[in-house]
Specification:
Blueprint: E1 7-13, E2 46-50, H1 58-62, E3 65-67, E4 87-91, E5 95-98, E6 104-108, E7 114-118, H2 127-130, E8 149-156, E9 162-165, H3 172-179, E10 197-203, E11 206-212, H4 227-230, E12 239-245, H5 255-268, E13 281-286, H6 291-306, E14 310-313, H7 322-343, E15 362-368, E16 371-377, H8 379-387, H9 393-405, H10 408-415, E17 422-425, E18 432-435, H11 464-506
Parallel strand pairs: 1-3, 2-4, 9-11, 9-12, 12-13, 13-14, 16-17
Antiparallel strand pairs: 1-8, 2-7, 5-6, 5-8, 10-11, 15-16, 17-18
Amino acid sequence: MAHFVDRVVLHAGGGDGGSGCISVHREKFKPLGGPDGGNGGDGGHVELVVDPNTTTLLDYHHRPHRRAESGGVGQGSLRHGHKGSTLELTVPDGTVVKDRDGTVLVDLVGAGARARIAEGGVGGLGNAALASRQRKAPGFALLGTPGQQSDVVLELKSVADVALVGFPSAGKSSLIAAMSAARPKIAEYPFTTLVPNLGVVEAGETRFTVADVPGLIPGAAEGKGLGHEFLRHVERCAALVHVLDCGTLETDRDPIADLDAIEHELAAYAADGLPLTERPRLVALNKTDLPDGEEMAGLVRATLEERGFRTFEISAVSRKGLRELSFAMAGLVQEARAAQEVEAAPVPVTIRPKAINDRGFTISREEKGGEPLWRVRGSKPERWIQQTDFNNDEAVGYLADRLQAIGIEDELFRLGAVPGESVVIGAEEDGVVFDWEPTMAAGAEHLGARGTDLRFEDQHRPTRAEKKQDQADRRASKRQVRAEMDKLYATDEAEDVDAVAGQQEER
């Protein structure tokens, strides 16, 4: 059975950022050469790119989970981790990207159009990048942040100028085969096309594309049959052509009833742009090469023209009326293209700079178990939480310094937070909880100044005289210690002699 896929759910994941490295440069006669830990590499992004050679979403139907390359970890000797490569996923021209709620994120039309659907994680800084005048020997590095996880819906809408709509077996496939080089499957028995077909038609100097939209029956807009799956392919078309079967073998059908049924389905379908029933429409009375077909066309044409439809009697087999129909379709296409050129005039781009007083975070008060809880949200503090190694006290102290620097502590004071209350940074599912104290140091204050090492403080190089004096002091100290030891030994020997003499007298 043919399986046409024009709608898939894609689960995309950006690559994780690599963690920074903790390293100290060492070489002979220079055991402490300073921090030299490299930075971690950024994770790769996931992007959708329109490729003219891609015509289906079937690949993403079979493999819906895609993930970009993660960044490499930093290493010693200032070796930075590699950056994860961007994962480019090719999609057909006319792919619409939506979120799970149905909101359109981007409409990809035109070769090379691209959209980023998942951001890669940020690589963490190594201790070399964290070093400063005040922090000469950082004993920590920042972790890489995880890549963004994104679930998007891809919908394929055929990029065509004119859509052929009508009941199954009305002759749409035969018509598109007669007017263009397309060769869809055509049979002498009633069946419906399972895959929309595209054909290129030339009428004079105008070239346009025609789409065969299959399977429209009563109830298609509500999901009955295959019509609901293919109605989205009509949305991009500038004009519609009703293909009515004048030679149908079914006694309960006639062209007027077929037209009313299809118009009802077009009106019921919620298109993203202009409603389908408000677009220019033509009527093609097909199969007039049959005696009954020609007679039926003559009976209904006056009624259709009274309704305002431009009507053409055609035959896909004998090619009757196809030239007139093609030029009428070309006229509608030209009008639509002229209107698009007017709408595509350059629009001034307005840049809205970030507000000066935007602190980058918000704090809200919540209740949990009858106890107050303060929730901090913001891209900066939440990213810093992800970058912190909570097994390293110095790293936690550095986090406290960063949070205090952007004013979180002052804002908690202003809102009435009491020391000892819980502060959560992040969302409900992945937030980090602190028992808030005004310093926010989380036990790291006993380390003293962050990132200091007394071995780096003494930068004085002794002179030759100082070295001689130091050597003389060491010799004098040795002589003094030796003299004290000799005196102690002499005292012990005298005590031993007196003890022996006393024992002899007693005997």
